[in-house]
Design brief:
The protein has 169 residues and is mainly alpha-helical. It has a two-stranded antiparallel sheet with strand order 1-2. Helix 1 runs antiparallel to helix 2 and helix 2 runs parallel beside helix 4. It is globular, with a radius of gyration of 16 Å. It starts with a strand and ends in an 8-residue tail after the last helix.
């Protein structure tokens, strides 16, 4: 079933066709990727915004089945794109997905959150005890350099000064 995943590749969908991609999903995410049933179920549950639906799928299938073929990692990245912090928490605490796992482009969850200015998610991810902020993606970027390149000053400050840094409106 089609869904949205992060990629550095432009969408292969012709521009003459209307996009069904939600407006809350940043550019740089592509559609029409074929997923198996467990991946589609997780993504569908995330679309609803229901933390309990995501938990139910993980419990029903078991951790190993729910995270097979990177399903949990892809679901985690999708939850970041939609700014669903509670679902991100479920995926990190109830599956074996790593906060330091890298996509095919080398991006980690905090890199995606930093690139797209997801401030609360960046703060949450920085509180994870095993997060590795020295990781670089395939282009040599870190979470900090992605936030800088994309003009997310508040995220830059959180990354520089820590998750307790107070962002003023």
């Amino acid at each position: 079933m089609p869904t949205i995943i992060p990629s550095s590749q432009p969408s292969s969908q012709p521009s003459s066709q209307p996009s069904s991609q939600p407006s809350s999903v940043p550019s740089g995410y592509v559609q029409n990727v074929d997923y198996n049933e467990q991946e589609y179920d997780l993504v569908s549950a995330i679309r609803t915004g229901s933390t309990s639906a995501v938990e139910a799928i993980i419990l029903e299938r078991g951790i190993e089945e729910a995270t097979k073929n990177n399903a949990a990692f892809q679901a985690l990245i999708y939850s970041i794109s939609l700014n669903y912090l509670s679902i991100l928490n479920v995926l990190l605490t109830k599956t074996n997905v790593s906060v330091n796992q890298q996509s095919i482009d080398g991006n980690t969850p905090i890199m995606y959150a930093s690139k797209y200015g997801k401030l609360k998610i960046v703060q949450y991810l920085l509180l994870q005890t095993n997060i590795d902020m020295t990781l670089k993606n395939n282009n040599g970027d870190t979470a900090l350099s992605l936030a800088l390149k994309n003009g997310h000053g508040d995220v830059v400050n959180i990354l520089r000064y820590g998750p307790s840094y107070v962002v003023t409106p």
